[in-house]
Write a structure and sequence with these properties.
The protein is about 50% helix and about 20% strand. The protein contains nine helices and eight strands. The strands form two sheets. It has a six-stranded antiparallel beta sheet with strand order 5-4-3-8-7-6. A two-stranded antiparallel ribbon has the order 1-2. Helix 4 packs antiparallel against helix 8 and helix 5 crosses helix 7. The longest helix is centred in the N-terminal third of the chain and has 30 residues, at about 70-100.
């Protein structure tokens, strides 16, 4: 399949726009059109057009006759810093959870309409479920995915449903009405248990991680074969995973008692 001339032009513009943003640094925080044109070996007319596009989206702003980064960059920085903070604060509680349950544990968040693992601590089990940081999964087949989806705006849930509900395990939910009912229950419980949904004979449990405002920004989860995590063991696992989520939330600044007082 060949790319059309129009698509090639759009791709080139995106690449050039990113190259412009990468020129800005602590040492070179203000640049002019001539500076950018010379560094990237692009015509001044092309640079001027790209700068106007970046300014319209808030990624650049004008300083006199030159330019510097705009406030929209801070939005992207905030996402990165938030994930780095979760990674830093979640590691020790996650390690403790793995030592108690002796199963792999993850911290996950949503990347658009997909689940993505951002932290993993492995157990010492010889047989472990395969997963890796950065891996994307459909949210509707997993405990952390459903948990996070339950607290998303309706628009995000609608996008997930419109994209289709994939069947991965024998119990994967493919009926939108059933999914919506499950999400409602998860909002009430503030934890999620999935059995045979991503893989057959696998149980997954997830609990929320909240930021200082009480917003659910990530999930902590454990997944294990049924042979090791029988249904009798699920309540204990749920309790430990919820505790871990609360520990991480507290390290991120969430104070449950103050939040409860504010909701009265």
């Amino acid at each position: 399949m060949t790319m059309s001339i129009e698509n090639k032009s759009i791709l080139q513009s995106v690449q050039n726009g990113l190259q412009i943003l990468k020129l800005f640094s602590k040492e070179n925080s203000i640049l002019g059109i001539t500076d950018i044109s010379r560094e990237l070996e692009l015509p001044k007319s092309t640079v001027s057009r790209l700068i106007n596009d970046l300014m319209s989206e808030g990624y650049l702003r004008k300083v006199g006759r030159k330019y510097t980064v705009g406030l929209s960059i801070l939005g992207l920085t905030g996402v990165i810093m938030s994930q780095l903070e979760i990674h830093r604060e979640a590691f020790d509680p996650l390690k403790c959870l793995v030592s108690k349950l002796n199963e792999n544990a993850h911290v996950s968040t949503l990347d658009g309409t997909h689940l993505i693992y951002i932290l993993k601590v492995e157990s010492k089990q010889t047989i472990r479920l395969l997963s890796h940081v950065g891996q994307h999964r459909p949210p509707t087949c997993s405990a952390p995915g459903k948990l996070l989806l339950a607290f998303q705006p309706k628009e995000i849930v609608d996008q997930v449903i419109q994209a289709g509900l994939p069947k991965r395990g024998p119990n994967s939910v493919t009926d939108p009405k059933v999914l919506l009912q499950q999400l409602k229950q998860i909002r009430q419980d503030e934890y999620c248990v999935c059995i045979d949904e991503m893989h057959e004979d696998v149980i997954a449990i997830a609990a929320p991680i909240k930021d200082y405002t009480g917003k659910i920004i990530a999930s902590v989860s454990v997944a294990a074969p049924k042979l090791r995590m029988g249904e009798d063991f699920i309540p204990q696992c749920v309790e430990e995973i919820i505790k871990t989520g609360k520990k991480i939330s507290a390290k991120l600044g969430y104070i449950e008692s103050l939040q409860c007082e504010g909701e009265r």
